[in-house]
Amino acid sequence: MNDADVLNLARAAGLSHEWTNAFGQPMQVAPDALRAILEALGFPCASDEQRRDSIARLAALHDADRLPTLATGTVGEPIRLAPMPHLAGMPYRIELEDGGHVDGRFPDDVSAGAVLPALERYGYHRLLVANETATLAVAPPRCFGVADTLTAGAGSSPPDLRLWGLGVQLYSIRRSGDGGIGDFSGLSALVRSAAAHGASAVAISPVHAMFSADVRRFSPYGPSSRLFLNALHIDPAAVLGADAMAAALAGLGADAAARYAALEQDELIDWPAAASLRLALLRRLHERFVAGDAGGDFEQFRRQGGDALRDHARFEALHAWRVGHGESGDWRTWPAGLRDPRSADVEAFAHQHAAEVGFHEFLQWQAARGLSGAQKAARDAGMPIGLITDLAVGADNDGSQAWSRQAEIINGLSVGAPPDVLNTHGQSWGLGAFSPHAMKAQGFGAYIEMLRATFAHAGGARIDHVLGLTRLWLVPNGASPQQGAYLRYPLKDLLRLIALESWRHRAIVIGEDLGTVPEGFDTQLAQAGLLGIRVLMFQRHGARFLHPGEWPRHAIATTTTHDLPTIAGWWQERDIDWRARLDLLAPGQSESDARHDRARERGELWQALIETGNAHGTMPASDQSAPVVDAAAAFIAAAPAPLAVLPVEDALGLQESPNLPGTVDTHPNWRRRLPQTVDRLLDEPAVANRLAAMNRNRSFKES
């Protein structure tokens, strides 16, 4: 089959043959790469017969002879459906979610598309036409916003409302008795302390479910499922009490308590050791729970969790059984009967291993209690937002979500990124992506359940790589990232669903929009009320750092992110130390060049801090970062952003960052613990002064 036919099929499937790289250069995707991606999407084209079949399948997805499973709309605007001739002149009824209905009749001419009247109530309504039904997801015009957190029950808020919060890697929180991994009890203590210092929110690293049978996989951005929670963040003492925990720990051996205490003292998390001990302890507590009076709360949680909870628990049990017997943990290599969550073989396995399945349901119950308890602690302490959770861009292709949602998640492609300034070879993250075609065909059900899981125990959510709402760079398994291509996603539909769920949960939404951003995308996000992210080091016009007043109002302001140097680390060139050591400097750049450039940038930043009144006097030496950290915190706080977020690493003036992109084992990614316990973390004089500066500059009112 010729290349022109491949390109035509690719366009019909939503793949971009051409794109513009980070340097503004036009690029093209090779036809062979498109063939591989089309194959994975379910539209093979190795022959003319396959191409015709693929075209027919694409046409069937846009069948004009039936209503869509779900259509989205906006409050106050007519809802436009695709041209469907069979609807001409047909009567319809819209049953509103909260009661009542709207009756009407389609016009006799629907060649330009069928139009439904504007609805004034948001929600999931039902459209009935003859024997057909469709869901109408009608969203507010924008997401729930920062100002709405105060107006919800207290009248109008000031137009220049400016709140601030902290950002923290949850695993890094240190408290006495945590066994070496930050937990939800530590998070509860942190939000109470942060609230006492004036914070309105605490943004946390992803808490998605990981692989309990493979504790070597601990990157929070490579989860097994984004529908459930990481059981390793459960505080064992919160399950049945401190006495029960001590008894369970004693039952694990004479040295278990000593090992548990020793793990708390490490500067870096020993994930295999700490996670194995935590899970063994939780298993003991589960046995004690089952032997006692289990109570009705757990059973209610299981009922509410439904098929999704059951599937995840069964996957965890299956995965552990396979790994424990020396077999592959990748479900895609399992016997056919175990690859299908609805098969008789899976049902039989679950019956035979009911106790193990129940254990993993129990873990999810305890994790949900812990996270919801931290959000309650935040609200009780006066935070209008509270926790801001983090939705990873994807889940691992061999994990629970990919296994249980095979109809919606593409098998054979990985989410990644094309080559750019920081990653010249591109990236392939091994994460599965939703198929935009399957999403529409399935009524966006898997996407909606993921949004609800993200918002369930929080006052906000950060969407990682929010560019994925409009397009994702997808790479065939085993291929180079350069052999990927952009796949188009239904942006308007996804933004409406996010807005609808954000209002139903009364939660703000932040989108990580750093990287190669399509023209006009930031405007679309702003119009949808989805806040972008602006980072101090990137807010420049040429060599000049933009002053806070020049920052946008439709994005949060922050000093750094988990993938970038801390302010102290940047000032002291710690990031250059690491990149030089690991041969990660930009192509053609020497270490001396990098340090020369950094010296110039330090001067430019200090000049901006001086000009804005956030710093004074002579520029500190490169090994004297404390005054710069102080000034940087005050600097971002003065921006007109509705929310400023200070990562706890910068609140503490730490040099090391949580993650160094492009590394796996050569840098201690996702392992660093905070230097002080949470009970005194924010009360150190230097830290308290930085938080006080956040309060002062956040209360600034324009004339």
Automatic annotation (TrEMBL):
It catalyses: Transfers a segment of a (1->4)-alpha-D-glucan to a new position in an acceptor, which may be glucose or a (1->4)-alpha-D-glucan. GO terms for biological process: carbohydrate metabolic process. Keywords: Carbohydrate metabolism, Glycosyltransferase, Transferase. Its EC number is 2.4.1.25. The keyword Glycosyltransferase applies. Belongs to the disproportionating enzyme family. Gene3D superfamilies: Glycosidases. This is 4-alpha-glucanotransferase. Pfam families: Glyco_hydro_77. It comes from the Bacteria. SUPFAM superfamilies: (Trans)glycosidases (SSF51445). PANTHER family: 4-ALPHA-GLUCANOTRANSFERASE DPE1, CHLOROPLASTIC/AMYLOPLASTIC, 4-ALPHA-GLUCANOTRANSFERASE DPE1, CHLOROPLASTIC_AMYLOPLASTIC. One of its GO terms (molecular function) is 4-alpha-glucanotransferase activity.
